[in-house]
Amino acid sequence: MPSAVEPPLTTHVSAILPTEPLLLMGAGPVPIPQAVAQANGMIINHLGPTMDRVIRNVKEMAAYAFQTRSRKIIGLAGPGSAAMEMAVANTCWPGRRVLCLKSGMFSGRLGEMAEGVAADVTYLESEVGRPVTAEQVRAALSKARYDVVTMAHGETSCGVRLVDLPDVCRLAKEHGALTVVDAVVTVAAMPVPMDEWGIDVSLTGGQKALSTIPGVSLCAFSEDAWRAVERHPGPRPHWCYDALRAHRFWGEQQYHYTAPVPGVLALHEALRLVVEETLERRFHRHEVSSRAMQAGLMAMGLTLFAQEDVRLNSVLAINVPDGVNSARMRAHLSNAFRVEISGAFGLNVVRVGQMGEQCRSHNLFKTLYALGRSFCSEGAKLDVATGMAALELGLTGDQDDFED
């Protein structure tokens, strides 16, 4: 019997997707290499022998990216926020005292998640545009006992980096507290040595510096953190994000839930490319790329929100010039130049990503020119040519590192 419901017109459905994809130069997701895209188109048995080998490789390569010897590394079917949820829900529970270092929206989200599992949360908030300092943490830890200290290494919302992260981790350890670190925009973009700095839980999302698809993420636990996971009194609030259940798949290749097979295969390829490039070369590429972009932006006449001593190189927050409509400028950038950057959360800034495949010379030149011309379309007085020259100067001598 035919359906009384008419099917939608295919022309209306297909028109949603652009004929020319945008160059994604915002705070994530980012462009992905061809090898990653190809892997994302494959399906294999999530419990078969090939997947067993894939998982072993992913864990080994992820340990390299996290700079850790820990084998308690778990992948998640979910974004970086899902990894945050796993980190918090397995180390925090009713009666646990949590100190949340808040310098923006994403570092504050860790505190919200801890509240969600009924932990007792205290927020230590920095002034706008600055990170929490080690001295502030020292003072807080001297006044009260905490079981867990949460923080973001890179605060994506405002482009600020927690420069005192190693000292904060050391202080927390001295006071018997675990550290949970959101390293979503810093792992594989700059050094975040988990073991050396004493990080207990480090987490990242695939769609940032790893340059893989959105919707897969990684969470790494130290031995101290894993002991806390094992002594969680229950009931555990998240079945999918229960680290013990998840470890059956990621540690023992047993069934937990149906893994996001294409996402895991894409993550495998992305990590393989990180290993192939080496962290040393990758860190250098990101550093040179970001500093050259910063030089180009400032030479053009724009200013950056975060001061240089605390600036997050992987996500640059740019002050919107007076009189410029940010939303209209970004729409012009997308429509006229097919380049997309990010807006902000309450601040009058726009954000440009410098992560993974974004850090290629052809992407940098296209983005800087398009950004400058789009600001000018809104009446900003900028010297685009001088900015482009500064970018080129900043990349001089390093061109080989920026080739695909």
Helix content class: 40-55%
* Through-space gap between termini: 55 Å
Number of H- or I-type helical stretches: 15
The CATH topology label of the largest domain is Aspartate Aminotransferase, domain 2
Uncertain runs with pLDDT below 50, 5 residues or more? none
Structural class: alpha/beta
Overall CATH class of the largest domain: Alpha Beta
CATH architecture of the largest domain: 3-Layer(aba) Sandwich
Number of strands: 13
Counting structural domains, the number is 2
Largest sheet: 7 strands, mixed
Q: Which series of helices and strands comes N to C?
A: HEHHEHEHEHEEEHEHEEHHHHEHEEHH
For the record, what is the CATH homologous superfamily label of the largest domain? Type I PLP-dependent aspartate aminotransferase-like (Major domain)
Write the layout of secondary structure elements.
Blueprint lengths: L9 H5 L8 E2 L9 H6 L9 H18 L6 E5 L2 H12 L5 E6 L2 H12 L3 E6 L8 H10 L4 E5 L1 E2 L4 E2 L3 H10 L3 E5 L11 H4 L3 E5 L10 E6 L1 H8 L12 H8 L10 H17 L1 H22 L14 E5 L6 H12 L1 E2 L8 E5 L7 H17 L6 H12 L9
Parallel strand pairs: 1-12, 3-4, 3-5, 5-8, 8-9
Antiparallel strand pairs: 2-10, 6-7, 9-10, 11-13
Helix pairs in contact: 3-11, 6-7, 12-14, 12-15, 13-14, 14-15
